Amino acid sequence: MLNMEREIYWNIPRLWIALLYGSFIIATVIFLCGIFRHIRLIRLGKKLNRLDNLFTRLSNLVYYALFQRRILEKPYQAFTHSGIFYGMLILYIGTLLVLIQADFGLTILKGEFYKYFSLFLDLAGGFLLLGLVLALIRRYIIKPAELDNTADDLIVLILLATIVISGFLLEGIRIAITEIPQELPIRYFSPIGLLVGQILLSLGLTQTISFYLYPILWLTHAILAMIFIAYLPFSKLMHIFTVPLNIFFSNLSHVGALSKIELETSEDFGATKITDFFWKDLLDLDSCTKCGRCNTGCPANLTNKPLKPKQLIINLKKHLFNKQKINSNLSPDTVSYDEVWSCTTCGFCSSKCPVFVEQPAKITELRRHLVLAESNFPQEVTAVFKNMETHGNPWAVSWDKRSDWCKDSEVKILNEGEKTNLLLWVGCAGATDERNTKVVRALVNLLQKADVDFAILGNQERCCGDPARRIGNEYLYQQLAEENIQTLKKYQFSKIITCCPHCYNTLKNEYPQLNGNFSVVHHTEFIWELIQIGKLSLSKSQILNLKSQLVTYHDSCYLGRYNNIYSSPRKILTTIAGAKFKEMKRHHKNSLCCGAGGGRMWMEEKLGARINQARVQEALEVIKEGIIVTACPYCLTMLEDGIKEKDALNSLKARDIVEIVSNSILV
Ligand code: SF4
Ligand code: SF4
Asked: Has residue 546 got a pLDDT over 60?
């Protein structure tokens, strides 16, 4: 008769089964002690409510944790991690069913269900083993720069592999002795087990050998499984639990908005001790899997500066788990000042992290404490703060000269009670930096040609506050932002247009925290709209005044990564150019920062290679002669400097997209 039931504990003495349950209890106690330690440490963080928007949180959990969305971006890692994750998940559920049947008398594994259950589990085991082999190859043979190998990494992979291999050997022996000789068709539903069984038989496995070998293997398999349970909370495998929680409790506010400090009620600012972070920040640290994705496009890391976002998170976690350190300051021992000030807040790290760690937010918290509580920041920043306080811009141009750039042109400056359709937010760079005033003039030219009703605030405009906020001076940021919001509220307009992605991000995503709610558009979006509705027509020839007509586009971090504006600039360029458009190696969300964000525009770059030169080099790799186009005043400045520093002025030019459009309009 066809045996369609699972024979559990085949050839295992009853005493051993009792011992298995005894060791399971011990392993569980160790496991729980480990888990409670994690919970206790995470609870040391400051309170924060993350139980809002439950539906979105649950959707994120399914999309990013269960379906592993961010891990699936790279095929090798996707296959490896899926094999391990789904293989373990299925085997865990399968083992539970086996135990329920064996020890609670519920016969689930029988008939048709058992056939497909066997097949499913067998393939899951194979998938898991393949994932583990690929992970070992990647770690120890391919050795990508972002991975470093610790004893824990090896222990985890070897432990899992030995559990799976011993499981297949057990299955193979059982099939070889109980199914192959009787030619039971059920054996075909464990293809890998059957293969192992056939190999063992060909190697001379007999009933007698299996009588001794099977229990020994079973015991080995069981002991390894118990070690796995007990070791889990003390290893990187803990991320099995922390990652889903971290994704569920992730920050749902706009990615471009830093958290607001309630200046009137807060007693301390930013973070100096690990316990100054919120509990969710500590859960972030505990969730890091050390995958190194955050390092792969970090401009600081790529130019050999001390900051490596992965190491930053690992060091903060070590600090949290070190009893002696828990009450000591984080900087400069755990996070050096150079690390703190090397960050451009480009957001690459957090956008790539598969487990939703927010590295830039932690760096900003450290900066906030250093700036607001200790007045400890790079010396060159002193003048920047002073200029913003006295002149309302970081460049020391007197506030009453802010609108000098348009003295000779017919640009309407709003006076009390006046209204306009479009408010042109000029920005500090556009108003005071000679090179960038050309960009604003080009935009004015376009708006006038397209017959758009627009006006500016003139000398009433102040710095939006982005540099102050990213450097950590929340006090100065809020002062400038509130002043601007008061000014803006005096006038009627339908939307604000700006050339600067930093102004765009701040006005659009951060001013609402201070009750400044305005409709904001970036010039790339607005120009593309004008082209689409036929208000601007573009020529298709020789707009570049270069033989090659080659253009590439550099994504500003605050336009692309933080605000998802990637397509309008590209559509404009491919519409106007008659030119050959080429992407650089890093583009869209993988774009490399120019090096100026996070207040770095005003800090000296003394460590490592220069970021702007690294980016110019990437442009030169795809266009030997042509134009690198951008849509950000910071990027434009950094790229032009980079071109000069690399002595590439004869082959490469940097332009804002509005300058390219302005040169090519027909009407
Ligand atoms: S925000 Fe950018 S510069 Fe800062 S750590 Fe992350 S990747 Fe590096
Ligand atoms: S912070 Fe995120 S991306 Fe970076 S190593 Fe940890 S898990 Fe990977």
From this structure: no
